Amino acid sequence: MTRSVRLPPGSHRLKTVRAITLDLFGTLFDISDLMPRVSKDIVRDASLSVEPKVFCRAWKKHLYKRRWHTEFFSPMRGWFRISFIETMKTLHLTFDAEKATTELFKRLAHAHLYPETRKALDLLSECYPIYLLSNVDEDVMERLLPIHDLPIQGAISSEQVKSYKPNRKIFARARKKADIPAEHILHIGDELLYDVRGAQRAGFLSAWLNRDGTPLKRGYRPALQAGTLMDLAVMLLRKI
Fold first, then answer.
1. For residue range 184-206, what is the model confidence (pLDDT) as tens digits?
2. Which among 52, 81, 86, 193 could disulfide-bond with 62, CB atoms 3.0 to 4.6 Å apart, if both were Cys?
3. Going from the N-terminus, what domains does the chain have, and what CATH number goes with each?
């Protein structure tokens, strides 16, 4: 059963869409269990005296407190390594942060698509050129995307433009590649800040892929939201 699709005021503008950009992880690729699995592996392999859940909670706290969307840019690999080092300090543990980061990125580069991703993209690609935008290092994209052979015209990593969503730079690069005015591009993503607000700042239309049915936060106004990528694809093809 699919979740309901919500059409906020202004959704009529979706009839003018001529190109689509999509986020990668959490939108096309399922990494919902990535941090718990990596935490479990680190605790086991390093014989740490802490529960994996406790480790994961501390790690998330350090990782997500970092403001990737600031003007200062550093590759994602560095942010993760620092988050591991800070987790060690907080929990008074010792393990190889560089090795943990390498293993994490190997998992990212072999992430699995959500079940509906390929069919939804096949449908969308019949009507729109598709570009991928992701807050991820270039080497992850280079290893991941060829495995799946998705129907896309291009992919842009944060490392390419030296900036993270929601900064306008990565969206501007996509607009330039598509050679289509920003107001005729729809960005689809699962993060309100990085995807919805980022797209709106860049002049794009935005669609929120709300897989968990989370209430929409005040101040965010996606042109469309739905629980699955297939729901969004069907609505767009029907021109709302």
1. 999 999 999 999 999 999 999 99
2. 86
3. 11-31+113-237 (3.40.50.1000), 34-108 (1.10.150)
